[in-house]
């Protein structure tokens, strides 16, 4: 094994198509945020953010809107190169490796296979929303050759909210079966297979985002956690559609998530659809992007009719919003 400790090399220019990836360090707009505040957080300017995001009016931002902040980073390897998107709390980020035919990456305790593509190898990695913003080691094993890099996880800049719950909903949060329910959802998602989509489709028509991913939440008089998905409010009975092609790996009534469906899309990535009125797909069924998987309602731990759309990557909840822009395919 050959060990190389590589510096955190920034290469903002000369990346060609890599720098144009919509996955280049992104930020989801929280309630009350301004472009000026976002620019200060990431050490850039309002003018630069407006330019790279094509904003005609920098004063008009939408809650949940995803802004690109920085392009990718390129690092030289002994027999090729690595390009990656800087990791952020609560987001998936991509790696591309050229010059090698097989390998894997390890980050924050999870091993991710590097999948062959026409231009090399690539993988999607996940960062938990509560991961402390600081440097963490990335281990690459490429054809038996080990390489280590230090990657800086950026702060996600998430907001806060308090939800007033009825006594019956508060009792759900104290249910001893919560852990088992979570384990069932995570365990239903396989980690193998090719990715089956290039970008997410709308999960419903006419819905509006009422709660962004990562928002720090206080539930009634109980405890503080964070929002693991993206909430869309819409009238009861609104058809809920698969955001991408996939295979149904869970379809049943759950205590907290209500009528629930989970789709597997390959490479350890799954989408979850919670709080439905009814389910219209069965386990083992392959569905196409845009196919109706259920109808909207307010079941489980829910204060009103809405869809909670969740994305998990190797079991880690990540922000669904960037997936609507597209995947960083080489």
Structural class: mainly beta
Number of helices: 4
Shape, per Cα inertia axes = globular
Q: What characterizes the major β-sheet?
A: 10 strands, antiparallel
Return the average pLDDT rounded to an integer: 84
CATH domain class name of the largest domain = Mainly Beta
> What is the helical fraction, as a range of percent?
under 10%
Determine the N-to-C terminus distance: 28 Å
Number of strands: 25
> Helix and strand string, N-terminal first?
EEHHEEEEEEEEEEEHHEEEEEEEEEEEE
Structural notes for this entry:
A hairpin with a 2-residue loop joins strand 7 (103-107) and strand 8 (110-113). By secondary structure, the chain is mostly beta strands. Strands 14, 17, 18, 19, 20, 21, 22, 23, 24 and 25 form a ten-stranded antiparallel β-sheet that branches. It is 10% helix and 39% strand. The chain has helices at 35-41, 46-53, 167-173, 178-187, and strands at 3-6, 26-28, 66-68, 73-77, 80-84, 92-98, 103-107, 110-113, 115-117, 120-126, 135-142, 145-152, 160-163, 208-211, 216-219, 224-226, 230-233, 239-241, 246-254, 258-264, 269-279, 286-287, 292-296, 306-313, 316-318. It is globular. The longest helix is centred in the middle third of the chain and has 10 residues, at 178-187. It is built from four helices and 25 strands. It has two domains: 3-152, Roll (Membrane-bound Lytic Murein Transglycosylase D, Chain A); 160-323, Glucose Permease (Domain IIA) (Distorted Sandwich).
């Amino acid at each position: 094994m050959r060990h190389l400790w590589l510096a955190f090399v920034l290469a903002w220019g000369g990346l060609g198509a890599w720098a144009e990836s919509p996955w280049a360090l992104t930020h989801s707009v929280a309630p009350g945020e301004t472009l000026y505040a976002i620019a200060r957080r990431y050490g850039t300017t309002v003018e630069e953010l407006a330019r790279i995001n094509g904003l005609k009016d920098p004063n008009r931002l939408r809650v949940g809107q995803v802004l690109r902040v920085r392009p990718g980073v390129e690092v030289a390897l002994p027999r090729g190169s690595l390009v990656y998107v800087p990791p952020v709390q609560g987001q998936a980020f991509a790696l591309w490796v050229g010059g090698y035919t097989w390998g894997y990456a390890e980050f924050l305790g999870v091993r991710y296979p590097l999948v062959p593509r026409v231009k090399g190898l690539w993988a999607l990695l996940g960062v938990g929303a509560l991961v402390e913003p600081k440097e963490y080691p990335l281990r690459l094993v490429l054809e038996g050759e080990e390489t280590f890099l230090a990657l800086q996880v950026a702060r996600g800049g998430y907001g806060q909210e308090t939800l007033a719950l009825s006594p019956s909903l508060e009792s759900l949060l104290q249910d001893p079966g919560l852990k088992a329910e979570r384990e069932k959802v995570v365990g239903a998602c396989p980690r193998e297979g090719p990715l089956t989509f290039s970008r997410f489709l709308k999960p419903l028509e006419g819905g509006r985002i009422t709660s962004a991913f990562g928002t720090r939440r206080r539930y009634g008089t109980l405890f503080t956690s964070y929002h693991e998905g993206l909430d869309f409010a819409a009238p009861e009975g609104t058809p809920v559609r698969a955001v991408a092609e996939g295979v149904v790996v869970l379809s049943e009534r759950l205590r907290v998530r209500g009528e629930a469906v989970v789709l597997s899309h390959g490479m350890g990535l799954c989408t979850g659809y919670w709080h439905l009125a009814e389910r219209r797909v069965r386990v083992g069924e392959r569905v196409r992007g845009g196919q109706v998987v259920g109808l909207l309602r307010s079941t489980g731990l829910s204060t009103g009719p809405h869809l909670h759309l969740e994305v998990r990557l190797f079991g880690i909840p990540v922000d669904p919003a960037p997936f609507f822009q597209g995947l960083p395919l080489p």
